[in-house]
Structure formats: C-alpha cells, structure tokens
Amino acid sequence: MKRYLLFAAVIVSVLAASCSKYKYEKVPGDPLKTRIYTLDNGLKVYMSVNKETPRIQTYIAVRVGGKNDPSETTGLAHYFEHLMFKGTEQFGTSDYAAEKPMLDEIESLFEVYRKTTDEAERAAIYHRIDSVSYEASKIAIPNEYDKLMSAIGAIGTNAYTAYDQTVYVEDIPSNQIDNWAKIQADRFKNIVIRGFHTELETIYEEKNMSLTSDGRKVYENILSSLFPNHPYGRQTVLGTQESLKNPSITNVKMYHDTYYVPNNMAICLSGDFDPDEMIATIDKYFGDMKPNENIPALQYEPEQPITSPVVRDVYGLDAENITLAWRMGGAASADADLAQLTSDILYNGQAGMMDLDLNQQQKVLVAYGYPMIMADYGAFVLQGRPKAGQTLDEVKELLLGEVAKLQAGEFDETMLKAVINNRKVQIEQYLDSNDGRADAYVNAFINGIDWKDEVEQLDRLGKISKQDVVDFANRIFGDQNMAVIYKHEGKDPNEQKISKPAITPIATNRDATSAFLQEIQSSQVKPIEPVFVDFQKDMSKLEAQAGIPVLYKKNETTGLFNLMYVIETGTNTDPVLNLAFQYLDYLGTSQKSAEQIKQEFYNIACGYGITAGADRSYVSLSGLSENMPAAMQLFEELIADAQPNEAILENLKADMIKARADAKLNQGANFGALNRYATFGPEYVRKNTLTDEQLQALTSEELLDKIKAFANLEHTVLYYGPKSGNEVVADLKAYHKTPAELTPVAETVRTRPLLTPENRVIMAEYDAKQIYFLQISNRGETFDPANDAAIALYNAYFGGGMNAIVFQEMREARSLAYTAQAFLSQPGRLDRPYMYMAFIATQNDKMGDAIDAFQEIINNMPESEAAFNLAKESLIARMRTDRTIKSDVLWSYLAAKDLGIDYDRSKAIFEQVQHMTLDDVKATQEKWVKDRNYTYCILGDSKDLDLNYLRKIGPIQFVSQEEIFGY
Known about the structure:
This protein is α+β, with helices and mostly antiparallel strands. Helix content is about 45%, strand content about 20%.
C-alpha cells in the first residue's frame, strides 16, 4: 500500500522541557503543536493532541520494507507484517511451552523444504509441515491479537508494507492507552511465528490477485526500468513466486531481531490524551526494548544515468494505456518540493496544463501525472489512455508535448500562487483528522525528514520561481532518460498462478482465552460515557429564499467550506443526467471559455462537482471560505449561460462509448455490473442505461434543457464551513440564483431489489485465475428500528472483523481467501429491504471449498460464548467513543430522514445491546439468516470452474457483458 504526503518534508529542533522528566522537540509555528520525543533506546514518538473525539489514532512505523528483503526470500517484509498478528508467548496460545517444540519443528522442516528440489520429497515434507501445524493449532488461539484489540474497543486494525516501511495501525479509545501500550510492546518485543503455512496461503492469494492487476504490473515495470540497481527495481514488495514457495521462518526471525528495534521505529499519535501521561506510558512498556546499533545500511550500486529510453511492454485484460516515467531524487532531496509544485502545474484535476490542453480539449480519453516520491529515489510519472482509433504512441507524443511546453516556460507565472493556495486547502483537509496527522508523522520519520521542514513546506514552495520550475523540468525530463511502459490489451504470456497446496483446516479454538487476554478484559478503566448526536442541538435548520431549507453546521477547525445542493431525483428518473453534467463540464459561457472558468476556480482554490445517483443528485462547491461568493457566482454563471458546442458533444459521445468499452475489460467493473444485474434485474439495467444508439441521438439542446430544468428544481442546501448561519443565508440570497418558486421534484418510483424465492446461479465470464463470488438474498422485509440492536450484534459476532466467525473460518482456519465478508445489510430508505450478502475472492480451484464453507457457517452458525462476549464488549466500547461530528452531522440527519425518523438510532442500540445474550444472536440467525434462498453471482472463467458443482446449488444462468452492462 502506498501513501503520499500532500506536503513533503523535514526539524531544526527546539528542545523543550515539559513538567515531566521527558524532553521533547517542537517547531515554532506548527499548527499541530507537535511534540517529538526520543526515548533513551532511540524510539521516536510523535504526538498531536486533538480532543474532538475520545479516540486516538496510532501508527507504529518501522523503517524497513520490501527494499530490505533478502534476495533469496523476497516478500519477507510483507509476510512478516501478516505474522505480527499471530501473537507472542503470552497471547495467541494456551500453552506456549507445549507449543514451542512443534513450532521449532515446523521451522526446521521449512528450512529443509526450501532447499529440496525433488517435487515428491517436497510434497512429503509439506505434508509433515501440515500435520505438525495442525497439532500445534490445537494449542494456538487464532486471532487473539484481534480479540485483544476488540476488547479495548479498537477499530481500523490494519497494517501495510511498502518499499521503505511497514506500519501497524490502530484507532483506540482514549481510556485504553495503558492496555494498548502493553499489548503493542509485547507484540513488537516477543513475536512468535505461528500459523505460518496457513498465513502463507493467504499471501499466495494476495500474490495471485496481483498477477492479474495490470496497474500493479505497470507500477512494477516503472520501478524496474528506472532503478535497475536499487531494490525498488530489483524486487517487489509481494516477492517472487519462487520466494513465496520457499519461505524461511529462520530468516523471518533474523529479520525481526535486526530491524524491529526501537532505534528503527516511531510511534505516531494524534487524538485525545495528555502528552506527559502518554510518553510515560510508552516508556514504561517500550523503554526496555534493546536497540540495534548495527542496523545494516541498505547496500546498492548508485543508479547510472539513463542514456536511451527503457521501453517495456505489459499485457493484461484491462484497457490499453501508456506510462512515461523519469527518475528523480527522493523525499528528502530538493527535488521533492520542485516535483510537488511542477506536478500541480502540469496536472491538478482542474486547471493544469494537461487538464486544459489534453483533457479539456478532448485530445485523449484521459491524461494525468504525479510524482512518486520514496525515501531513496523518486519518479515523475505521466499516464494516458487513448481515444477510439488513437494509438499509444500518439498519446505519448501529446504527453511529451506538454513536457516541452513546461520546459519552454509556456505557463502563466500566476499559476504558482494558485498552486500554493490549492495546496493549502489540501493540507488543511489532510490535517483535519487524527489519521492525517499521524500519517504525516509516519512519512516524515520513514523518509528521514525533519518536522520543521514539513511545517515550513508551504513557505518553501512559495519561494520557488517560475525559472526554478523550468530548470527542474529541463533537468528531469528528457526524451532519452525516460521509461516508456506500453500497457497492451491481451493475455499476459508471463502469467502464472501459485497452485493450491493441500492444507488441513486448523483448529479455531474459539472458546480458548489466554491469561493475558483475561487480564486485559478484567482491567479497570474509567468509562467514557457515550454521546449521541442530537439533531436539534448539533446543527441548525435555516431557510433561504424561495423557501429553500438549509441544514447548517459550523466548521470550527479550518477555513474551508463545503456547500451542497441536494436534489431528490437521479438516474432512476432520468438516465441522461450524468451525461448532461459531464457535457456541462466542457462548456464555456457567452463571456468565458471553459478553460477560463476552470482557471478562475483554481485561482481562488475552489472547485465544483455535479453528480447524479440513482435517486438523489448533488451539486457541490468547496474550497477556501473567503472565496465562497466568487465560487458561487462562477458556478451560477455557468449553469445559466452554458453555450452549446456540437463538436465537444460528438467527442464526448465517442469518448463515453470508448470508456464504456474499456469498462468491459476490467474485472472490478464487470463484477459491479453483475452485482447490479443480479440485485435489480435486467429491466432495471435497461431502464437506467443508455444504449449506444440512444447516446448518439442526444442533442446539445436536450442536454442543456435538462441542466436548466435541473437548476430550478426544489432542493435542500447543506453547508459546512466557518461562516455564521446568517452569513450563509445572505450569500445564498445574493449569489444562488433561483426563481421565486422552485419546480417540485416529480415523485420517484424507486426500483426495489429483486426478491429471491429460490436458489439460482448467475455466471458471467471473465478470464482470470480468481473468481469474484457474491451471494445475495432479499425476502422483502422493510425497515423497522426495533431490529437494529439484534442485527448490529449479529453482524459484530459473525462478520464484524478479524476476530469474527467469517474471518476466522474463511481465512484463518481454511486459508480460502485473502478477503471474505458476510453480513445482514440494513435498509438505507424506508422502501428498501434488508438483504443478506456474502462475498469472497478466491482462486478458481478453491471455489467449491469456499462456497461450501460459506453455506456451512452461514446456516449453522458456530456458537461461542467467549467470542460472543468479546463481540458484545467491542461493540459497546466502540459506541461509547463514537462521535458524529463536523459535516457528518448533516449527512446523518439526511440518512435518518430517509428512514422516516429524526433521531440517532445508536442510542437505542447501545441501551439494548447491554442486555443481550448469545441466545439473542442465535435467535437473530434463526429468524433472519438460516436457510435463506440466494442468487449466487460468479464472475470467472467457466472453462476453469466446476460447473457441475454449481448446478447442484441451483440452475445456472449465463449472462453476456451486454446484458449486465446494458450496452
């Protein structure tokens, strides 16, 4: 997973004394008031206090990643990340002393296995590994780390590995700091490698998914082209198939001892805590970690200049595209700032050179660019997709044409100021959350950047001149020093698959708990009382001209606004709406060209968007609050005076037809279309989708008439920003042009999901090594708030996270998938039904096992008092600290209105769950889940699947792409 800093950066340290014994660094003028501590063992701790909610975002970052993998066991950083969830000597096991000899034997067997080449001998060794692993699993307690996190009310349990870092993520209640630190310290100090072969099978699944990801192939080819000497280009984060087939637990342990040391780690925090208490707690638990004074420096030959283009051809099922990339300096180099600024001049999604010259002028289907900034090196990347009949080389020349203009300085110097203003907006948005703040600290630490330079980045960018940008462009972008990646449509000749090994499902031991978990569960913390949103107090209902209702919530933390017009109509009523809105985006007025309008919006650091959903449409304006009136005026001028352009419309139609054809090549788009078809039926698809013939018949007059009629419809205004309610109403009166009487919205007849009176299978073809599988069931029951608590608790117990039944059975015990979900979905509107859904993505040869396993656990739900108590405690703990704040208050109010209520349902759920038992979950499963009929959706290659097995489930309906897409 790749993270980008929206601002790049670096700390001339100011040593500050706190009232405690701990010293910390701070930076004058830092809006986050960051404290940076360094413990005696070298552990860095970054902190920002934010008391908006009683929660804390925590990231524990280790400065090690895929680039540090041993060449003989690539992918090690990534699969070690997975193993960090398996426990220690204290948790994850009921008897470590009895378990250890078996774990030692498994380690020894893997060392023999990886050095054995005879396939029969390897199979025999793996069989022994599987047998010993099964015996060890009888003692292990799978997912006990996740149970610990659930017990303390953590959410967002996750981790990610990139080339430069491995990062572990938790969002915890503010009263659980001591328990969190105790668990994490034990985890980082005393990791035990267990459940190794089943977790490896999960990693095989992830690797298999990557092998059919065209985007990942292009990304890896960019790196291998630009960095032939550096590990960025020589190995991948997921590792080679050969490495994954021959793993080494011994290497894993050495890796942990070498890199998972305090002087190579940072704890990054933002949220509701006392800094002095927090650092004391972290020191208490992490202070005895032993540093490694001999962390090996990464060894690689410096990259030599590229003297002729490195050309690569990549094949895959997705639509063709082309990528150009140039090598540049890393995150801590001067190139980073210049690249950020240059990137926004070239492409910013609104008024960059590529935006206006290529996208706005419809010269390509789409073009964009961005800097890919990593610790040791970076890459500047331009990408484009061709229009119908256009070659990749023609797109390449257009991209290089924009580079040549940049090198010649053919851009207005005022663009520099506009870029700074828009980056200011991006940074304010980014740092307006605990997640953004903690993530910023992670990036600074991993990239070796002083926090002072992060704080001062906007000032630095403001000093960059036009000549600096031109000089950078001429130094970086050449026609001989680039990588050119042609992504072609077609079968990948190099595509391979890691075959399914024979694995015995491990024991789940759901009722087992370690003494460590019991200790955490019984620990006493000061309870946090829940706070539920009160729509009467937490927002205001105002009225603007023409009786327009205004939902108002003040932004107390930034200088940014979001103004939304919400109209109760959508594509169910008129499938042409989104095309009309796209057309508008290309048009100018009688006074201004489309390019001028885009530039004016960008210059004032504001933007607009219009989109139609199935039943509701949205117009949004956002940006710097002081420029809201100007943004409103610009938008109203465009709506009222948009000028038709037949050439643009014909190009738009052609591009839309090409984009729709491209969508048919994409696995995710095919699965989305299959899901829609199965859920709503063929009539819905036909009604809501324009055929190519209908699309071609549309005229400018029709589309502009729809826009003008749309602008006069009744609507609700949502405002979140720093202005007062009176100021907002005044601005609406002055700048939001409406007739004296708005047009009532015609009553919408909403299409309901199809009932599922019997089992059936819908099969859509897609040539991939994994199937996407979805089963859906609709019995027609509609919303009743009396069901809320029981369904919430069932979902928490059965499908609510890594410690729930679905994850344990489908991934941990049986290694059937990288991802699996099952849940009873709540209606979003009064006329929508409850639906049961289950999803899995798995290898083709695991299909039958996966479906059988799903049916078994869904219909015969495993029962565990211990697992239930944990799910209940976790749900209650989360609800105690959940807070509906900021603009979420407005959207929560709209969601409540859609269900015919005007209150927060969470209060009743919280109160009722307190008294519920496992019997209530069993009753919910019996009433709502057991023995339902389903529509089973399969997206895959029927030649590679057991169709006779599927016929046992229900009759198979084979559907074409034209049927599921509607064109």
